[in-house]
Each structure stands twice: as structure tokens, then as C-alpha cells.
Write a structure and sequence with these properties.
It is a single chain. The chain is of the alpha+beta class. Helices cover 34% and strands 30% of the residues. It is built from 3 helices and 6 strands. The strands form 2 sheets. It has a 3-stranded antiparallel β-sheet, with no helix packed on it. A 3-stranded mixed β-sheet has the order 4-5-6, covered by helices on one side. A hairpin with a 5-residue loop joins strand 1 and strand 2. The longest helix has 24 residues. It is globular and about 50 Å long. 18% of the residues are buried.
């Protein structure tokens, strides 16, 4: 069976002091005079948005009505390790109005669903916290 494209995002980025990032659909238009920490912030935002969608999907699959929208604070760090650079991530996820055991299960399921989580699993250190 052929892959079916669900979503596509295309962004043009220009470096330098007049740098920017602009998506082709005009949803994103940011000045990027320095590549860091912009890259980490953009990755954190993208991963968080995807993770929240995956969490909502996980709740729907279990027929759990979320009384409030989930939220995530995601921190991406660049570390110097073994003469190179690596990433480390911490996702602090709030699932308001859901008991902690069920919320933890939804977070763990979302991590298995989210394509960003899948992309980095085993490649970077990831900490998933329920807050």
C-alpha cells in the first residue's frame, strides 16, 4: 500500500543577520537573525504541537473526553558531547481534568503515536513529565 500524505509543511529559511523563516502557506513568518536558539524553539514548538494532537488522538481512541485542552512546555537543549553536538528534550505535559494514572497512559500512548517522538526516539535523551 502506498503512503498517504496527511499533512505537508514547507518553510524557506535564510541565514545571516537578516535571516528569516517563512512557510509557504504564510502561517509562519519569523525573523531569525541567529540560528540558535531559534532552531531549538522552532523544534520545541513543532514537537509540542504534534504531541498535543497525538494526545488528543489517544484520548479519542479510548473514548476519553478531555475536559480542557492539554498543554506542553517543551525544552530542547544542545549539548556538547564527544567532540560533537547532540540534543536533549524535556516535555512537561499537562492534561487538566484527567486523573494522573489515565493522563500518564495518554502521554505514553501519545509518545508512541507522535511522528516527532518516533523520529527522535533512541537518538536523543527524552524526558516526558506529567505536570
Amino acid at each position: 500500500m502506498a503512503d498517504k500524505i496527511i499533512f505537508t509543511g514547507t518553510t524557506h529559511v535564510k541565514g545571516g543577520p537578516d535571516g528569516y523563516a517563512r512557510s509557504t502557506n504564510n502561517v509562519l513568518d519569523l525573523a531569525l537573525p541567529q540560528p540558535h536558539p531559534a532552531a531549538e524553539n522552532l523544534f520545541a514548538a513543532a514537537w509540542s504541537a504534534c504531541f498535543i494532537g497525538a494526545l488528543e488522538l489517544a484520548a479519542g481512541q479510548r473514548k476519553i473526553k478531555l475536559p480542557a485542552s492539554p498543554e506542553a512546555d517543551t525544552t530542547i537543549e544542545v549539548l556538547s558531547r564527544d567532540g560533537g553536538f547532540v540534543l536533549r528534550a524535556r516535555l512537561d505535559i499537562a492534561v487538566p481534568g484527567i486523573d494522573p494514572v489515565t493522563a500518564r497512559e495518554l502521554v505514553d500512548t501519545a509518545h508512541k503515536i507522535c511522528p516527532y517522538s518516533k523520529a527522535v526516539e533512541g537518538n536523543i535523551d527524552i524526558e516526558l513529565n506529567l505536570v
